[in-house]
Structure formats: C-alpha cells, structure tokens
Amino acid sequence: MESPRISQWLNLLVCVLLLLKAEGDFVPITIVEKAVSKGAVCLDGSPPAYHFDKGFGEGTKNWIVHIEGGGWCNDVNSCLDRKDSRLGSSKHMDEPLGFSGILSNDQQLNPDFYNWNRVKVRYCDGSSFTGDVEDVDQSTNLHFRGARIFAAVMEELLAKGLDNAENAILSGCSAGGLTTILHCDRFKTLLPTVARVKCVPDAGFFIHAKDISGTERIEEYYSQVVSTHIRYILAPGEADPHGLWQSCKLDINKCSPDQLSIIQDFRTKFLKALNVEGSSRSKGVFIDSCYAHCQTENQETWFNSESPQLANTTIAKAVGEWFYDRSPFNHIDCTYPCNPTCRNRVLDLKDHPEI
Question: What DSSP string runs through 43-55?
Fold first, then answer.
C-alpha cells in the first residue's frame, strides 16, 4: 500500500508540473555583454538581456520580438528607486523565464506563432527604450541609454537570423507596447524589404486625459520622462496620495460606483483618441472591455477555452488572421461589464511594481 508521505509527494509533483505547464516553457537568459562597450546598458550600468527560444519546422525564418513592460521613471529619484531591481538591472532579472501566450511553443496554445523564433527583451532603462544620454552623473551612476539597448539587442538578433526573416512581429506589453509603437518603423527597416513585418502593441496606447484628481498629469509626466532620458495613467500614485484607488486598481470588484463611472468616462476618451489615428486594412484593433492590463503574455487571456472574445474570436486568432492578411479585424467591445467572456483578473503587486 502506498504510504501517505509518498502520496503527498506525488500530489505535490503533479501540482508543480501543472503549474509549469500553465506558465509555459522556461527559457534561459542571454546577457548581452558586448553591448557594454557601446554604452548600451541598463540604469545601473549592467548589460541588457533577453530570452531567446529558437524556432523550428516551418517557423525557422519567422520571428516574434516581444518587449517587456514595467512603467517608466521620470526623474532621478524614481530611476534610483528601480536601479537595483529587475526594471533597472540585469543583475536582478529572473533566470530562466516562462514563455506563454504569444511566446508559447505549444501549437494548441499559440496556433499561428508557436514554432517561430520567440524573443523576450528585458526592460531595464525606464524610458521605453528611448534614452541616449552620454554623460553619467557619478553621484547617482544612472545610465539613460535605452535607445542604445534597443539597437544593441537588435544587432545581436539580426546576427542570429533575424536579418533573413520572412515574417516578423514586434510586440510588447504596457511600456513595452509604447516601445513597439515608437520603434515599429525602425524595426521594419532592419529587415528584408520582402518580409511581412507588423507590430502588435498590447496596452501601449496612452492618451492625453485627466486623471482621477482632475489633472492632466500625463503631459507633464511624459515631459519629465523625455527630459530625463532624452499601467496606470488614470490613477497614478501622485493623484491618489491616500491610496483610495489601490484596491480598485487591483480588483474591479472592489471599485465603487463612482470609480466605475470614472473608468467608463476614461474609456470614452480613449476611443475618441484612437479614432483620430484613422483606419486602413493594414491596421487592426482588438479592444475588449475586460479589466486586464496586457493580454498577449498570459495564456488565460491570449488563447484557451475561457479567453476573452470579440466577435466570437480570441485575441490570438484575431492577431493571426490580421497578420497573415486572411481577414481584417477591427472590433471594439461594448462597455463593461457587457462581455460575458471577460474574467476578473486580480493583479498581484509583486508582478506589477509600477502600481
């Protein structure tokens, strides 16, 4: 008869295996040591890093380069706060890192892109890879070199086969989504002219609107980011000094009616700003009303039996249809909580330090 202790260990093993499957395969980190000589370094001066899982089968000449998110630092003090963390130093980054969602190598979980070369570029500059300041203040030892990091990592990936890509996607979450928007055209110029190249910014479109304090703080904030270096714009900490929105930001079920009304008003402003961008067949949108910040990286929101849907379509299928020009996809959800496929995701502060 099986002993209780053995049974407990077997149960634990099964749970661990299920957890690993849910989080995706783990991919080792690559430190770009040679980037240091080019001045392409993180906030603390350490070399940048990425995770690379090689493509296979028919996907060997296809590439996804996904940029990690993590907010921004807009002045010396806020940059010092993140200098000794994974958002400011490769010395503190997870190794290895789980790949899931758009980076999964499982055909059932990522049907259009599972066998591509898949890269996750770590975020350690605090400026969406835009900074390029030569001088370093010796009193802080802060390096504002995000643009150089992007160039150095792309140079290394090009040497690994990106220069021969037939299909390529630049994507990113949050601040990484903004990186995707800012570097999309440049990314395309690096690749063969015959390659199909598209960009997928996930939660990276940040609008000029008043926050919960009634202040148009985002304009000043981004101005500070720009002057320093070269998820929660509606309720940043500065606008909520007493933390009245903290619970609401983590779990929508804890939002008051007044807070929900403010969120709905922000949605209206977001859609108005988006419409200014115009439309064309080359563009696509998947805008659901789910309370989720970034949906490409997590398997539960990217593609599974309970993933959010628009027009009976998951975001994974929508991106695939749009990328391969099989059909256009431009759908905007009705207002929260109209979509029954949404699931209330409760955020964990340790995974979202920018909150």
Answer: TTS---EEEEE--
The amino acid present at 13, given as its one-letter code, is L
Residue 57 CA to residue 168 CA, distance in Å, equals 16
Backbone φ/ψ region at 92: left (φ over 0), alpha (ψ -120 to 50), beta = alpha
How many Å apart are CA 31 and CA 48, to the nearest integer?
6
What's the predicted TM-score (pTM) here?
0.85
**What is the DSSP annotation of 122-161?**
---SSSSS--------TTTT----HHHHHHHHHHHHHHTT
pLDDT in tens, 73-129: 999 999 999 999 999 999 999 889 999 999 999 999 999 999 999 999 999 999 999
Tokens 């770009």 correspond to 32
Residue 155 neighbours by CB distance under 10 Å:
17
- The answer to whether 59 and 114 have CB atoms below 8 angstroms apart is yes
In one letter, which amino acid is 164? N
How far the first Cα of the chain sits from its last, in Å, is: 51
Per the DSSP assignment, residues forming a β-bridge with 197 are: 168
Residue type, 197: V
C-alpha–C-alpha distance, residues 208 and 284, integer Å:
22
Which residue, among 278, 285, 183, 269, has the nearest Cα to 233 in the 3D structure? 269
Q: How far apart are CA 311 and CA 332, in angstroms?
A: 9
**If you write DSSP's letter for every residue of 63-75 in order, what string do you get?**
EEEEE-------S
What is the full DSSP assignment across 338-353?
--TT---PPP-GGG-T
Distance CA 222, CA 136 (A): 21
Cβ atoms of 262 and 251 closer than 8 Å: no
pLDDT digits (tens, 9 = 90+) for 37-55: 999 999 999 999 999 999 9
Given the structure tokens 């409760």, which residue do they identify? Answer: 346
CA distance 170 to 88: 22
The candidate with the shortest Cα–Cα distance to 152, out of 122, 176, 177, 194, is: 122
**Cα dist from 23 to 171, 230, 300, 329, whole Å:** 19, 36, 10, 28
Closest CA to 321 of 268, 277, 278, 285: 285
